[in-house]
Amino acid sequence: MTQYQNSEAHSAFARAPTTGILRARSIFAPAPLLVFLLLFFLGPLLLVFGESLHLSEMRIDFSAYVKIFTDAYYLRVIADTIVLGVVVTVICAIVGYPLAYAIARSSGTRKSLLIFAIVIPLLVNVVVRSFGWMVLLSGKGLVNWVLNSLGIPPISLMYQWSGVVIALVHVLLPFMVLSLASTLETLDPALEEAAAVLGASRATIFRRIILPLSFEGLFTGSILVFTLCAGSFVTVMLLGSTSTMVMPLLIYQQLNIVSDWPFAAAMGITLLTIIMGMMWLQSRARHRAWRSL
Q: 253-280 pLDDT, tens per residue?
């Protein structure tokens, strides 16, 4: 008995250093990642926030933020940025659902071609893509040429919100479609077949089965589309010019034209806060949607 107890004690003593090493590794393993985030993510944000408060001049000044939230022009720019993001997100969701469903229910070569057709806009440089839309939407572009051929009066799409929305939907639609398709692929087609056998229409099947079970993909795609849309700069600048002012374009003007770095930094922090707030609201809506199922 004594020999057995001694062997157990020796085994426990031998395991103790190994356990301590494993515990130390589990604690210090994330250290490189934390250092990377502190240096290249949190560090720049703190520098920008400090610039917005004039900390480089050894004083704290909230005048830039007061100017943003008390001037009607800047409040309108913030509202236009949010509305643009919401409109583009809604259009991408409406257009993306049938495309995502077609991808999820396809296979083989047809599925590969559909995915390639959806992803191909991302393979083109944003400047080239924007110039392409300028050619299509200009006063003598392809769209108005077709309308003239049909006897329809030309419409003005360049330097308007409509042209900006069309171009942004074109480039951001893949993020919505791929997010939805990845979720729809996990749905068992037998659920739709069972509902159809029980007499449910296609609209009822979509409303009661497909839509609730694809909420995860919908919210993921919405977060991606809204975040990228709110930060879009080149497309808005080329297709909208100064007639469609949004926060990224205003930040660019404050940096390169006015050279007001503290105000540009304050606008950047405000834009980041708005995006994080919208992501929080979308997360809350997702949790409520899941509770209601």
A: 888 888 888 888 889 899 988 888 888 8
SS3 193: helix
Could you tell me how far CA 77 lies from the centroid of its own chain?
19
Q: Measuring CA to CA, which residue among 39, 47, 234 is closest to residue 128?
A: 234
Kindly state the average pLDDT of the residues 219-223.
88
Torsion angle defined by CA atoms of residues 150, 155, 161 and 167, in that order, rounded to the nearest 10 degrees: 40
* Contact predicate 179/102, CB 8 Å: no
What CATH topology corresponds to 67-292?
Answer: MetI-like fold (1.10.3720)
- 63 — pLDDT class (breaks 50, 70, 90): confident
Q: What length does the chain have?
A: 293
∠139-141-143 over CA atoms, to 5°? 100
The Cα 18–Cα 185 span in angstroms is 44
Burial of 138 (0-12, 13-18, 19+ CB in 10 A): middle
Question: Tens digit of pLDDT for each residue in 34-55?
Answer: 777 777 777 788 888 888 887 7
